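Check this.
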Amino acid sequence: MEQIKQQQKPRSRLRMSGISRPRTGRYYRRSLILILLIVSIPGLVTGIVMHQLVVTRMEQEFNRMHQSQIETRARNVDDQLTYLEMSLSHWAFEPRFGETLRTKDFVYDFKGTGEIVTTLYVLEGSHSLIRSAQLYLDQPKPIVFNREYTELQDQQQISEYQKDLNTSGHVYWTDRDGSSAPVLVHKIPGDSTDPFGTLMITLDQGKVSSLLKTLTPYDEGTTFLMNREGRTLASGSLENDSEEIAFEQYLKQAVADRAEEKDSFLLRYGKETYSVSYSLMSRVDSDWTYVSAAPMSSVTAPLKQVSTFIVLLSGAGLLLGLALSWYASYRIYSPVARMLGLLVPSRSENHYTSNPLQNSARLDEFELLEREWQELTSQRLSAHRQLEEQLPQLRESFVLQLIRGHLYAYDEAGLRSKIQGLGFHTEERQFLLLEMAFTGYARIEGRFGSQDTGLMTFAAVNMIEEMAREHSEFEQIGVANFHDLSAALLIVAPQAADLKREALLWGEKLLEAIGRVLKMNVTLVVGRSVTALKELPGIFAEMERLAAYRSIEPGSQLLDLEDQRCFYRTQEAVYPLGLENELIQAIRRGRSVEAENGLERFVAEAMRTGGTEFQLQQIMLQLLGSIQHTMLQSGAAPYRLFGESNRYEKLSSIREPEEMKRWMMEQVIRPYAEEIQTREQEPMRRIVESVMAEIQQHYSMDISLESCAESQQVTPYALSKAFKQEAGVNFIDYLTRIRMDEAKRLLRETTMKINDIAVEVGYQPSYFNRIFKKREEITPSQYRERCSDER
């Protein structure tokens, strides 16, 4: 108990510290928060003042600038309209529009007519605001020149043009009763007191609208021109929706209520305040008034954004101050608490005592830190031991992924960083890759099953790793176990070492050791030494490709990737075509034993002529193709015998000749031979069934094996053999059993004489008695008496 109390003391002191430490921290945090809050107040106040006072002042200034800008643009509009008036007057005083037009015959004087039309075209193109130009003459008859010469016949049209001609004033503007764009009319001749025609230009409504839009520079609000009667001549908006019309009428009334000819004021409409400007425009025959209304939100939007940004920035400064206050308190006043937080993570308040008497005591934090440090050290050592235990598996996994090319996304620096994290040295180091393929497993399969290849590979890899670690020239190694009787070894050594020569010497010892201990052969391929990890996947792929060209001669082989003579042989393996024919014939006859002997001779002949593993694989693949071709010719479907598996792919993955031969016999030849035997037995089964039926019908006749064979057109030997296989008894025993069963039935159920019964079932009486007693161990008469007694 005393020991438990001693262990609880540091925890109690921690609880007391946990009560006092947060209280002191809160005090300093509050102080810093107050200081930073006071510092942040000026900025916050500045933003509010700017928003409330300065914005109002600047709104007025912006409004003034806006009015000045509108006046400038209004003068531009006035100048363009004045230019149109002067330009039309200039054309009206042209001689071609003089008194000669009164008496001219425009039908015959087509040249004069063309000149007038051309002149109208020129007039129409003289200004961008002009949509069309027209000439109306009432003498010698009502005529209109537009884009062509037209004699008017419609009295309504004539009256409309006559109305323009009879209007007082030589030059004036009209809007055709508000139904179209403004039209400027000038009577001709220009210097005549008795005009007989009018020269008219009609403005383009869209272009006039675009020109008026310049009076609302923020693309919001409305602008229009109106005459003294208050009728709208042109508007900056082509849309005549109800809301737009209502706002326009409200503006007209507001302008009419003011006595000045030129003024600007603020107008409240709905929830928006508008800056309204209007002024008088003097035209040739009347006065127009332009009205422009722009929402103040568009004018003052930039300023409001700036002021809002200042307010938000001040608020952000306040929040930043709060964060900095906490950070400063944590950094300046709580170093021990931070250390406890690191070593004693997330301790809740239930770890602190609730006894107020214990709050006066102080915890020796350094005792707690020491104890926690010792605990962390113990955990670190435990984690380090676990890492050391897992490190070999991690190294093997990395080497496997590296040489298989799964880490292609990493650059050289990334690969070096990962391999250094696994304890490898990479600075000024060279890397050498070795590939091992273990063959001869088929010879020792009596001790191990086909499922034990992984176990044999594991044993070989352990030997490789042990021997590599004992070699002094190999600074570091990494082994990759492929679990399919193959493995790879990565060797790391200083660049100054002759690593290639040492690897070849070590490889000879490895071949001898594995052959002695595991009774297996090894094909060891030594790659080339490189200083970049990125080159290893390519080297391994090259090693795998060239390993297929190794010699198939028995025994272990040590091959150098840089010595091409180890792989390419000048002697080509010869395909034993004659032995293939013998093997195919045996398979066709369904003789498995003979086919197995033929396959043995075929493989032996292919290996005797030399060649490489790749060549032997090609020979066996060709043989597989010939066998499958034979299957198709005989009507046997390969997919039914082999399923959906790819035979060629499986055969291509086998390295050893013995394994190729065993696989070919078990997976290809034997299933096909059994199929052939089954197909051959089917006709004989039907023959046996036919003979059995014949025996049951004609047992009383002189029937024999030879007669039945002759009737079925088969040999007596074949029929006897098939009959034994199908019926379970030979021919004569089956015939005797049928005859005896019928004889016993006649003895039981009839009163026929025994001699007559013998003849009935196909026997001579003397032979019948002898054969009956031999089978039933009693005579026919005794059998009849026994049956009578039983009844």
User: Anything to note?
Assistant: The chain has four domains: 23-325, 389-566, 577-681, 698-790. Residues 389-566 form a domain with the Alpha-Beta Plaits fold (CATH 3.30.70.270).
